[in-house]
């Protein structure tokens, strides 16, 4: 999880849905990225097929408090970490395997098998922007970063983000520092990020 935490300093990140939430995907609507740390899929909170549609980039109806559903076609890159990959809970094994295969196609999976020794573990593990960037860039071609991480980064997705220069991570880090020290307003920070990604 500590590898992904620097993303929260750069982007407006949608957190994982609270278990049992009535509005589990509301925060996704206006966020820059989806960042679900230690995610444990619960079909009672978000249906597997709804998540699949969201990650594929299909239109999804998202519930909001006191308002009608809003139709959203997700373009936000998604990163998640967890003890296991997102899995369908259908009883039909053929359908379950088919859905799981479709979900897996949305992600590049990084699996870690060697836990940190107890002597090295600490609650306030320092964030490392370079480690985060290296992990993300290792999951795609040099000129592209994919959109979904399942401990991971996705390499094929409608919501993939093209990076124009290898200096992008450094530029984003500089912007984040300016924003955190109060030298950029929220609007200025958002506009600068859009310019870096070639958006209007």
Features:
8 strands, two-stranded antiparallel ribbon, 200 residues, four-stranded parallel sheet, single chain, alpha/beta, 6 helices, 29% helix, globular
Can you give a write-up of this model?
A hairpin with a 2-residue loop joins β3 and β4 (67-73). The chain has helices at 7-10, 48-56, 93-104, 129-137, 168-180, 186-196; strands at 13-14, 33-36, 59-64, 67-73, 78-80, 144-145, 148-150, 161-162. α5 packs antiparallel against α6 (186-196). Helix content is 29%, strand content 14%. The longest helix is centred in the C-terminal third of the chain and has 13 residues, at 168-180. The radius of gyration is 17 Å and the shape is globular. 25% of the residues are buried. InterPro entries: P-loop_NTPase (IPR027417). This is SHOCT domain-containing protein. It comes from Polarella glacialis.
- What is the average per-residue confidence, as pLDDT, rounded to a whole number? 78
How many domain units? Answer: 1
| SSE arrangement, N to C | HEEHEEEHHEEEHH
Counted by DSSP, the helix tally is: 6
Overall strand count: 8
Strand content: 5-15%
- Which secondary-structure class do the elements indicate? alpha/beta
Major sheet: arrangement of strands: 1-2-5-7
Q: For the CA atoms, what is the radius of gyration? A: 17 Å
Q: Give the overall shape, derived from the CA principal axes.
A: globular
Ranges where pLDDT stays below 50 over 5 or more residues in a row are: 141-166
- Considering DSSP H and I runs of 4 or more, what fraction of the residues is helical? 25-40%
Largest sheet: 4 strands, parallel
Termini separation = 32 Å
